[in-house]
Amino acid sequence: MIKKKYITILLVISALICVLIAVALIRVFSSDAAIKDAAETDESSIFESISSLEALELGVIDGDELREQNGIEEDSDAGAESELSKEVDVAISLRSIQNDLKIKFTDSSNDRLIIGVPFTATVTCANKTYTYTDSDMDGIIYISYVDAGEYKVFMSDVNENGINYSAGKSQVITVSDAVVYAKVDVKDEIKTEAEINVAEEDTKVQDVDETTDLSSSQGEGVSGEEQSYDEDISDEAEDLLAQIESENNASEEAKKKIEGPVSGTLTAPAIATDPQYVSAHSGVKGVDVSKHNGNIDWGAVKANGIDFAIIRCGYRGSSSGALVVDPLYYQNMIAAQGAGLSVGVYFFSQAVNVVEAVEEASMVLELLKGYTLQMPVYIDVEKSNGRGDAISVEERNAVINAFLVTIKNAGYTAGIYSNKLWFENRISTSLFLDYKIWLAQYVDIPTYYASRYDMWQYTSKGSVPGIAGNVDMNVIK
Question: What mean pLDDT is predicted for residues 95-106?
Answer without folding.
Answer: 98
